[in-house]
Amino acid sequence: MRILAIDLGTKRVGLALADAGTRFAYPHATLARGARAKLFEDIARIVREQDVGEIVVGLPLALDGGETLGSRQARNFADSLRRRLDTPLILVNEALTSEAAKDDLVAAGRKGARLAAVLDQQAAVHILQTYFSQARTRS
Q1: What is the CATH number of the domain that holds 13?
Q2: Could you tell me whether strands 2-8 and 12-19 are parallel, antiparallel, or unpaired per DSSP bridges?
Q3: Domain count across the chain
Q4: How far is CA 35 from CA 32, 133, 136, 138, in A?
Q5: In 3D, which of 6, 42, 46 has the Cα closest to residue 25?
Q6: Using CA atoms, how far apart are residues 83 and 91, in angstroms rounded to an integer?
Q7: pTM of the full predicted structure?
Q8: Which residue range forms the structural domain that includes residue 49?
Q9: Mind listing the pLDDT tens digit of every residue in the chain (139 residues)?
Q10: What residues does 5 pair with on adjacent strands?
Q11: What is the DSSP string of the chain?
């Protein structure tokens, strides 16, 4: 079974996967955030093809933990996804994941269009890493 992380951006949706046993997260794909129906179809296809047993959606809370327009959009997206799939879905605070992802990619020598092409996927990797570290502290 795999875990799918979703970084919901305004233009793109980054996806990362992890094997539940190893908890090793890796970038998977970037989807265009166009027609909602197509986005949900693409995610459902990936869930089926990749044997996803759990979905983690990034929740962009304000630094003080408060709600933002982005967090309300992420909650609405997660609710819509829950209605379409039987896969358990968890929201995880994604504060500063995009900045951390950018730092990772710059350190790896990515810049410009090459950085932008995978930034959302790398942010999804950070969302999974946050989820795993929170699970360790709950154990």
Answers
A1: 3.30.420.140
A2: antiparallel
A3: 1
A4: 9, 33, 37, 37
A5: 6
A6: 15
A7: 0.86
A8: 2-138
A9: 999 999 998 888 999 999 988 888 999 999 988 888 999 999 999 999 999 999 999 998 887 878 888 899 999 999 999 999 999 999 998 876 666 656 655 566 666 666 566 678 888 998 998 899 876 554 4
A10: 16, 56
A11: -EEEEEEE-SSEEEEEEEETTT--EEEEEEEE---HHHHHHHHHHHHHHTTEEEEEEEE---TTS---HHHHHHHHHHHHHHHH--S-EEEEE-TTHHHHHHHHHHHTT--HHHHHHHHHHHHHHHHHHHHHHHHHHH-
Q: Both tokens of residue 104?
A: 């990772």
Closest CA to 70 of 9, 2, 1, 132: 9
